[in-house]
Amino acid sequence: MMGRFLLFWTLIFFASCANQSHNLLVEAESFEDTGGWVVDPQFTEQMGSPYLLAHGLGNPVKNASTRISLPSPGRYYIWVRTRDWAPGKWDAPGRFKISVNGKELKRTLGTGKDTWSWQYAGKVKIKTPVARIELRDLTGFDGRCDAVYLSTIMEPPPEELEELNFWRMRIKGEDPSKAEKLYYDLVVVGGGIAGCAASIAAAEQGLKVALIHDRPVLGGNASSEIRVHTEGITWKADRILRMINTVHWPNGSPESVIDDQKRYENISRYNNISLFLNWRAFYVTTVRDSITSVYARHTSSGEIKQFCAPVYIDCTGDGWIGYWAGADYMYGREDSSLYGENWEKYGELWSPERADNKVMGASLLWRSADAGKPVEFPEVPWAIDIAGSHSATSGTWQWEFSSDTLHQIDDAEYIRDYLLKAIYGSFYNAKKKPENKNLELEWVGYLLGKRESRRLVGDYIYTFRDEKEMREFPDAVAMETRNIDVHYQQKELDPARPAFLSEALYYKVDHYYIPFRSLYSRNIKNLMMAGRCFSCSHVGLGGPRVMHTTGQMGVATGYAASLCLKYNATPREIYINHMEELKKLVWGK
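Structure (tokenized):
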């Protein structure tokens, strides 16, 4: 696959030499000054690139701007890749304008199609070799800009995603074969609680570790960008987990920023952890059944690096490293019919008679605050069709969305936007009440806090039955006492309830253990996983999906990586031949 990838790039690169037109592609996320816009890379696999998001909570954000060096002065046609995230009979909520050298083009962008596409902005005569581009947000309601394309011929870039991706690489002169190669003992992808814990555990055993994370702060769902508080027990991993998290702040609290700083400072203490913030993995290379490298791209500059190691840990949540490597994975709910083929295997509770693709949903947390004076909030007709008459001034974990028709990975941007409409519409309804006249939106998340998506398959698939029976595995490396809970949309039981609110089904259990065999891939030899993408059934995930438990998984895989290096062994061989040594590291005995 990689050979075809590089050959294709080489052919189109040389073919481009015959093109005499002048053009320039400007990636919005690479703007010198992003102003009040934020870089959002979470949907790169679905739409092709990180992009700038005007997340102003109804107040237009500060302009984003950058200087560009043109191949030649002249008349340029300008296209902007964007989308209307709430199309309808109203004005689009994400409207914005573009200007060149201070001249604002007439066309309003962020309107029209609800899919990503190139929108023609207009033409402009540029007399200087260096020009300035500026994006002006008109609404504060999540306008988005992926890229700006300038060309001396009236021909837009390609629309189809695969063709567009190759086109982007060609026009930017990207050549992954020339990416800087970096060598480590361990590569950890995903800087949530599990990834941080894995990195520290491995580093303390002397490994040279690369920790790759696509955000500016560590913590994943526990970070100040998402603000889900951690739950579960720390068990034998208490010392390491307390270095990267506390348990005192509630869901949505701004106190989460304190833990951001704590994680960064403690990870930075380890000279043998190389931290790559704002780097997003996008490709892996394999030889037979082993990973040989992971490619990652900087979310703003677009620079590419190749990370090589004998062992990899997937802490991405969505299981991207395993997915790209061809690892077996599961998605959805298993069959729980008494006569179903999986009954004896899983014995699942709260699952359908026949397997389906339903999973627990994703959340956006949000808060409002008293401004001490009356504050207006704009009309949001594009949100009312989702919010209905629902009224709210804050939202925590129950603001969650999952559906039969939307996939938690493939349709993630639509799920996030659905929740934004629910939040803005519900707050608008609340503002109609006199007692809320002084309230203003203080913070609304824009990064999805996911609960479930892909689950990579290991030598053992952890199930509800294992939790219920409190099975004591000989290779237990994590333990939890938290009740099992699985979420569903309230509308499933009460059609009158909003579709964006969830509820939880609980099953009380005293304690349960997680086996090491559920933390490495059954068909990719040098891949382990920690976090919600570990090897489990849908309901099996219900208990150990919380962050202290996934942090325990991280510690176990980090220690296991040190043994892989020590014995030149695979994770499976650690289970077979060195399990007692691993347990001694985990249990501290």
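The first strand starts at residue 23 and ends at 27. The first helix runs from residue 2 to 15.
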